[in-house]
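About this split. The held-out portion is used to measure sequence recovery: a designer receives only the C-alpha cells and must propose an amino acid at every position. Recovery is the fraction of positions where the proposal matches the reference. Here is one held-out target exactly as it appears in the evaluation file.
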C-alpha cells in the first residue's frame, strides 16, 4: 500500500515537472518570438521596409523604340510584375518549391512537422514566403546552430508579415525578382534575357522548368556549363514531373517536353559588351553629375546602380545596330588594306617620324597601360616594368574575325593595336536634336576611348561649309556666284599670320572661273582661302561658335582648310543647323528619366538658337548637295569605296561634305537628308600612324562608305521612315541656288589689300 502511494507520488512529481518544463519551454518560445519581433536579436524590417524592400534594382537604359539597350547595376536585377509572368512558370515554381503555397499563411505547419520528425532528411520546410524573407532581409546567415535557430524564428515572423502585407501573386513576383541565377542574372527577367534572350512572358514550359530547377542550386544546375548538361536536363525533367504530380501538366505533355534538348541563346550582359557601349559609358559619366543636381525628396542622391531608374534615351536601337554594322563592315575591309600597306615597312605603323618620336609614343602607351598601373602599385621599379614589356606572354587580342589567343610581348601588342583604324560616328535628327546612333570606336572592350564625345580631331574640308555660310550671310553671295581658282598668296601680317601663306589644291591644279557650288563640291582650297580673306577669320570663328562648336578654334586663316580639332558630336550638331532651316538644336540624348515607381523626375528641354536665316541655310544645303552630285562625295551616286565596290547607289538628294586632314591622318564625311544627319571620322589613334596615300586615306575612302552602308540599311527598314525627299525650299527664296548660268566672274588673282574689296564679288 505504501509502495503504491510512493509510485503515485513519483508519477505526480514527473507529471508536475513535465508540465513545468513544458510551460517554461512554451514561455521561452513565446519570449524568443517576442524578442525576435522586437529586434532584440537584430533589426527587423519595418512596415516601410516591407513596403519597399531594398532589392538593388538595376537602372535601365531604354531606346526611343522601347528596347533596353543596357543597364547600370551592382546586381543585374530588373523587376517584373506578376501579370508579366507566364502561368506555367508560376505553376512550375509552386509545384516544385511549395506545393501548399496557396493554403498556408507563410509557414507550412505540416511541412515543418514532417521536417522535425524526419530530422530534415527529406529537406527543409521553408515555404516560398520564408525563402523570400531570407533573400530579402537575411541571406544565408550563420552556420552556428543557435544563431540558425534565431534566424529561422526571424524568418517565420517576416514570412507572416509578408503574407499580411502582400497577395500571393505579389509574393511570387517578389520571389522571382530576388533569385540569383548566376552569370550576372539576378531575377527572372535578367535570367530570361541572358540565357534565352527573351522576356519572361515569352518563356516556354520547358524553359520555365529549367529556371525553376536552377533554384535548388544555381551554380550546380547552371545550363551554360556544358559538362553538366545531363545533370541540368535531369533536373529540368524533375520539375516537369512535379508539375504532373500537381496537375499543372499531363503525363503526355511531360513525356514530349522531356525529350527536348536544352537550347540557350546565351548573351551575358556587361558594361563592355552589347549595343551602344560607347554611348552607355558617355551616359554613365553624364549621370554621375546628374545625380548631384537631381536629389531625392529626402535630399539624398539617387544611386545609379541600385535605385532602378529608367533612362529613356533618344537612341534608336535599329539605327544603332545599323551604325555598328556599317562601321564593322567597312573598317574590316579598310583594316586589311592598312595592314597590307604597312607590311615590311620600317617603323610601321608610323610614317615620317624619328626614332625618338616613336619611342616617346611607345613610352606613353606603356605608362597608360593596365600592366604598368598594377606593377607600379606592387612596388616595381620603372626599369623592371619596362623590361616586362619585352617578355612574351599569353594573351587574347582583338581581330575582326573574333578574339584570338596568341603569344606575344606586351610591347608588340602595343604596336599591333597602334595599327588599328578607329572611328567615331553619330547620327541625329536635325529638327529635334535627338541622337539616334552613337559609335565611339570599333570595339569597346579593347578600345575604350570615345571618338564621338571625347576625341577632337582635325576636321579638314568638312569645316569649309562654315566659311561659305559666313560669306553668304555677310556678303550676300550665292552658290551660283563665280570666283577664279588660281594661285593665291596671303601676305605676312594679314589677319595676324607670321609668314606668307600660299595654299595649294589637293590635285595641284587650278580650274580658273568656277562657281562657289563647284568650288565646295571639289573642295578647292584656294577658293576657301580667298573667301576667308574677305570676311576675316574671326567672323568664321563666330559663325562656328553660333553653330554649337565649343572646341577651341584658332583665329587663323588656315581654319578655312580645316586646321582645327573638333569632335564628331559638335560637327554633326553644327551641320544639322543647315538642314533645320538655320535653327541650331543642341544634340541631346535623354527624353526623360523615371524613378523605379514610374514617376518622371527629369525631362530635359531642347536647347535651340536661330543662327542663320532660312535662305542662307538652304543655300548651304544646296552647296553641299553639289558635293554628292558631282564632287568628292559623288561615290554615293554610283557606289564604291575607293578600293572596294559597295552597292549603295542613292538617287535622292543628299547634302554632304568630305574632309581629309594633312598627311591623311583624319578622314571625314558628314551627310544629311531632311530628317537625319550623320557624321563619321576615321583615323588611327596616333596621328603619326596613317595611310601613305591620299587615295586610301581620304575621307571619301575611309569614312563616306560607312555613311552609305548605314543609310542603305536605314532605307531598307520601312519602320524608320528616313526621308528620300528634297530639302524644303523656303518660300520667296532670295538667294540663287539653281546654277544654270554663271553670274558675274569675280577676279581674285590680284594681290589682296588690307581691306576686303567688296566689288570683287560683283555686289
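Reference sequence for scoring:
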Amino acid at each position: 500500500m505504501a509502495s503504491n502511494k510512493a509510485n503515485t507520488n513519483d508519477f505526480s512529481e514527473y507529471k508536475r515537472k513535465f508540465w513545468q518544463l513544458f510551460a517554461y519551454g512554451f514561455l521561452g518560445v513565446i519570449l524568443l518570438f517576442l524578442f525576435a519581433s522586437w529586434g532584440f536579436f537584430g533589426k527587423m524590417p519595418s512596415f516601410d521596409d516591407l513596403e519597399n524592400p531594398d532589392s538593388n534594382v538595376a537602372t535601365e537604359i531604354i531606346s526611343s523604340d522601347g528596347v533596353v539597350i543596357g543597364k547600370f547595376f551592382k546586381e543585374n536585377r530588373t523587376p517584373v510584375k506578376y501579370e508579366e509572368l507566364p502561368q506555367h512558370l508560376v505553376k512550375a515554381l509552386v509545384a516544385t518549391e511549395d506545393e501548399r503555397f496557396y493554403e498556408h499563411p507563410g509557414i507550412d505547419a505540416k511541412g515543418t512537422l514532417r521536417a522535425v520528425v524526419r530530422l530534415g532528411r527529406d529537406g527543409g520546410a521553408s515555404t516560398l514566403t520564408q525563402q523570400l524573407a531570407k533573400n530579402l532581409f537575411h541571406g544565408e546567415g550563420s552556420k552556428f546552430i543557435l544563431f540558425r535557430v534565431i534566424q529561422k524564428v526571424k524568418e517565420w515572423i517576416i514570412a507572416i508579415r509578408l503574407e499580411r502585407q502582400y497577395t500571393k501573386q505579389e509574393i511570387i513576383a517578389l520571389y522571382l525578382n530576388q533569385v540569383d541565377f548566376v552569370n550576372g542574372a539576378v531575377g527572372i527577367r535578367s535570367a530570361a534575357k541572358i540565357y534565352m534572350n527573351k522576356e519572361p512572358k515569352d518563356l516556354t514550359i520547358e524553359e520555365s522548368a529549367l529556371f525553376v530547377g536552377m533554384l535548388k542550386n544555381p551554380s550546380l544546375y547552371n545550363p551554360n556549363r556544358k559538362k553538366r548538361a545531363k545533370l541540368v536536363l535531369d533536373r529540368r525533367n524533375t520539375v516537369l514531373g512535379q508539375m504532373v504530380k500537381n496537375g499543372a501538366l499531363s503525363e503526355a505533355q511531360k513525356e514530349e517536353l522531356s525529350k527536348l534538348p536544352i537550347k540557350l541563346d546565351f548573351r551575358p550582359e556587361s558594361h563592355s559588351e552589347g549595343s551602344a557601349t560607347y554611348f552607355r559609358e558617355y551616359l554613365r559619366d553624364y549621370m554621375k553629375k546628374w545625380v548631384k543636381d537631381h536629389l531625392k525628396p529626402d535630399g539624398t542622391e539617387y544611386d545609379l546602380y541600385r535605385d532602378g531608374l529608367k533612362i529613356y534615351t533618344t537612341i534608336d536601337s535599329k539605327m544603332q545596330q545599323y551604325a555598328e554594322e556599317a562601321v564593322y563592315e567597312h573598317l574590316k575591309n579598310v583594316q586589311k588594306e592598312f595592314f597590307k600597306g604597312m607590311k615590311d615597312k620600317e617603323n610601321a605603323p608610323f610614317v615620317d617620324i624619328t626614332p625618338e618620336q616613336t619611342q616617346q609614343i611607345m613610352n606613353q602607351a606603356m605608362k597608360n597601360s593596365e600592366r604598368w598601373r598594377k606593377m607600379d602599385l606592387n612596388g616595381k621599379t620603372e626599369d623592371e616594368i619596362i623590361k616586362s614589356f619585352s617578355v612574351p606572354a599569353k594573351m587574347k587580342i582583338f581581330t575582326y574575325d573574333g578574339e584570338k589567343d596568341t603569344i606575344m610581348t606586351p610591347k608588340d601588342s602595343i604596336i599591333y593595336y597602334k595599327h588599328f583604324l578607329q572611328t567615331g560616328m553619330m547620327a541625329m535628327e536635325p529638327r529635334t536634336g535627338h541622337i539616334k546612333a552613337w559609335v565611339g570606336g570599333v570595339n569597346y572592350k579593347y578600345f575604350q576611348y570615345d571618338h564621338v564625345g571625347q576625341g577632337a580631331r582635325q576636321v579638314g574640308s568638312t569645316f569649309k561649309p562654315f566659311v561659305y555660310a559666313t560669306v553668304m550671310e555677310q556678303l550676300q553671295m550665292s552658290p551660283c556666284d563665280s570666283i577664279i581658282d588660281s594661285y593665291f598668296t596671303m601676305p605676312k601680317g594679314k589677319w595676324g599670320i607670321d609668314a606668307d601663306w600660299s595654299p595649294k589644291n589637293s590635285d595641284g591644279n587650278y580650274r580658273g572661273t568656277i562657281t562657289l557650288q563647284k568650288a565646295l563640291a571639289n573642295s578647292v582650297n584656294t577658293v576657301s582661302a580667298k573667301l576667308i580673306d574677305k570676311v576675316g577669320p574671326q567672323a568664321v570663328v563666330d559663325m562656328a561658335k553660333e553653330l554649337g562648336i565649343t572646341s577651341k578654334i584658332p583665329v587663323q586663316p588656315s581654319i578655312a582648310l580645316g586646321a582645327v580639332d573638333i569632335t564628331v558630336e559638335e560637327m554633326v550638331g553644327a551641320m544639322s543647323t543647315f538642314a533645320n532651316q538655320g535653327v541650331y538644336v543642341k544634340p541631346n540624348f535623354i527624353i526623360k528619366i523615371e524613378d523605379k515607381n514610374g514617376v518622371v523626375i527629369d525631362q530635359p528641354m531642347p536647347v535651340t538658337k536661330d543662327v542663320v536665316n532660312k535662305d542662307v541655310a538652304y543655300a548651304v544645303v544646296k552647296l553641299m548637295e553639289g558635293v554628292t552630285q558631282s564632287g568628292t562625295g559623288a561615290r554615293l551616286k554610283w557606289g564604291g569605296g575607293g578600293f572596294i565596290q559597295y552597292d549603295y547607289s542613292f538617287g535622292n538628294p543628299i547634302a554632304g561634305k568630305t574632309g581629309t586632314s594633312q598627311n591623311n591622318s583624319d578622314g571625314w564625311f558628314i551627310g544629311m537628308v531632311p530628317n537625319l544627319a550623320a557624321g563619321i571620322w576615321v583615323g588611327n589613334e596616333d596621328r603619326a600612324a596613317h595611310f601613305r596615300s591620299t587615295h586610301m586615306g581620304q575621307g571619301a575612302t575611309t569614312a563616306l562608305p560607312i555613311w552609305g552602308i548605314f543609310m542603305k540599311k536605314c532605307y531598307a527598314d520601312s519602320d524608320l521612315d528616313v526621308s528620300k525627299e528634297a530639302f524644303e525650299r523656303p518660300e520667296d527664296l532670295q538667294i540663287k541656288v539653281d546654277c544654270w548660268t554663271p553670274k558675274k566672274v569675280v577676279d581674285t588673282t590680284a594681290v589682296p589689300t588690307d581691306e576686303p574689296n567688296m566689288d570683287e564679288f560683283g555686289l
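Annotator remark: Confidence is low (pLDDT under 50) at residues 115-123, 742-763.
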